[in-house]
Design brief:
Shape: globular
Number of strands: 7
Structural class: alpha+beta
Strand content: 15-25%
Number of domains: 2
Distance between the termini: 33 Å
Strand order of the largest sheet: 5-6-4-1-2-3-7
Length: about 210
């Protein structure tokens, strides 16, 4: 689609170059280039908006993300059994199995996940992060956000939750859960997709939510 838009503009400019009798060629060619650029940006924007939908569009897609989130939870608890304590205390938690894949070309990071309340999946969520934290080309990782109270969960659902630039996460390793504490109602954990300890910057992350 993008190549087609650009080709149309290119063909128009080529026609003008080959026809010396056309007046004001430079201005017209400039307009062609500007229109083509705006069209390309518009197409990119539509593609990004489509890929960044909060919940997977298909039934299979929703089943896949729930399975991936469940596997990520199991892997985290296997690597650090003490996490069970903080999961039990939490009113809810959001699990993002893979942060970093997607939104290529607009900078930052992106990931889809599942929100749990009292151990049950209740909806889907999406994470976006500008260049303040994640950099393109970086390693993808798993992120788990635990919410201390029901009000914290509700704030997340309503889109009133985000991390400031100084926000930090606890890298999952044996015993990390035992020493973890809620800060401003949340506790954040990260690990690489293989389940190994991984430190990631979560500053600037924003979230969206969609109920099941």
């Amino acid at each position: 689609m993008i190549m087609w838009v650009w080709s149309v503009g290119h063909c128009g400019c080529l026609y003008l170059m080959l026809n010396p009798k056309v007046k004001g060629k430079e201005k017209i060619m400039k307009k062609y280039h500007m229109k083509a650029a705006f069209l390309v940006l518009g197409v990119i924007g539509l593609q990004v908006m489509s890929s960044c939908a909060t919940a997977p569009r298909s039934v299979q897609g929703k089943a896949d993300i729930e399975q991936e989130a469940a596997m990520a939870l199991a892997k985290a608890q296997k690597n650090d059994p003490s996490l069970v304590n903080i999961f039990d205390k939490a009113a809810g938690y959001a699990v993002f199995p893979s942060v970093g894949k997607g939104a290529v070309g607009i900078g930052g990071a992106y990931g889809k996940g599942v929100l749990y309340e009292r151990g049950n999946a209740v909806g889907y969520c999406a994470l976006t992060q500008g260049s303040i934290g994640f950099q393109l080309g970086g390693q993808s990782y798993t992120e788990i956000i635990c919410f201390e109270t029901q009000q914290n969960v509700e704030n997340f659902k309503q889109g009133n939750f985000r991390f400031d630039a100084q926000a930090t996460a606890v890298a999952i390793k044996s015993g990390a859960g035992a020493n973890a504490k809620f800060t401003n109602g949340v506790a954040v954990f990260t690990m690489d997709e293989a389940g190994l300890m991984f430190e990631a910057s979560v500053g600037g992350q924003k979230f969206s939510y969609q109920a099941k």
